[in-house]
């Protein structure tokens, strides 16, 4: 068995400079064991999410919307390695949360990706599904989060439990 190689920060910057997508994993689970496990999967990066809980939803309109209004200035910041869009946070800050605003938010996110790519800035959009991540990569995103550990763990356990139960067990 060949073990996946670990990606260095220099490797990430080099791939992003070439506009090559890098697939990664978002981690909400605590502990060094989780981080090491995910780092050994072959992911190009692992984000350890320490942000959630630091702000209340009521703080979001002033944050994520201001960043969108000032996107050109943000993209011009010297030394910035990339930008990363959180669609849920962005939709809340724009007052566009909910399924009825999905198409509008896709348009907003696509414009962010387009503007970042035009500025030569690595850009990513948060998602927990590989097929959605592939769509963002096709638009030009290079920071491609393809999975969230909690989602994958829960989905995998549900799938295996469903397979192991008799057909007449409808839990």
Overall number of strands? 5
Percentage beta strand: 5-15%
Radius of gyration: 18 Å
Q: What is the helix tally?
A: 8
Task: Specify the CATH homologous superfamily.
Answer: Phosphoenolpyruvate-binding domains
Please give the largest β-sheet.
3 strands, parallel
**Helix content estimate:** 40-55%
Low-pLDDT residue spans: 53-57
Measure the end-to-end span. 38 Å
What is the succession of H and E elements?
A: HEHEHHEHHEHEH
The coarse silhouette is: globular
Structural class: alpha/beta
Tell me which CATH architecture applies here. Answer: Alpha-Beta Barrel
Walk me through what this model shows.
The structure is a single chain. The chain is globular, with a radius of gyration of 18 Å. It has a single domain (9-163), classed as Phosphoenolpyruvate-binding domains (TIM Barrel). The protein has eight helices and five strands. The chain has helices at 9-17, 32-39, 64-69, 71-75, 87-93, 102-118, 130-139, 149-164; strands at 22-27, 45-48, 83-85, 123-125, 143-148. The longest helix is centred in the middle third of the chain and has 17 residues, at 102-118. The strands form two sheets. The chain has a three-stranded parallel sheet. It has a two-stranded parallel sheet with strand order 3-4. The protein is 46% helix and 13% strand. The chain has 171 residues and is α/β, with parallel strands linked by helices.
């Amino acid at each position: 068995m060949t073990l996946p190689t670990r990606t260095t920060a220099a490797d990430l910057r080099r791939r992003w400079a070439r506009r090559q997508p890098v697939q990664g994993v978002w981690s909400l689970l605590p502990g060094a064991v989780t981080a090491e496990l995910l780092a050994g999967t072959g992911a190009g990066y692992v984000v350890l999410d320490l942000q959630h809980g630091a702000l209340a939803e009521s703080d979001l309109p002033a944050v994520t919307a201001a960043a969108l209004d000032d996107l050109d200035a943000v993209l011009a910041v010297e030394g910035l390695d990339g930008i990363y869009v959180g669609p849920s946070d962005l939709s809340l800050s724009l007052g566009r949360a909910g399924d009825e605003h999905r198409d509008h938010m896709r348009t907003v996110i696509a414009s962010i990706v387009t503007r970042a790519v035009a500025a030569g800035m690595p850009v990513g959009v948060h998602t927990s599904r590989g097929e959605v991540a592939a769509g963002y990569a096709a638009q030009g995103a290079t920071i491609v989060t393809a999975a969230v550990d909690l989602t994958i763990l829960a989905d995998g356990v549900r799938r295996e439990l469903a397979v192991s139960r008799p057909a007449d067990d409808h839990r």
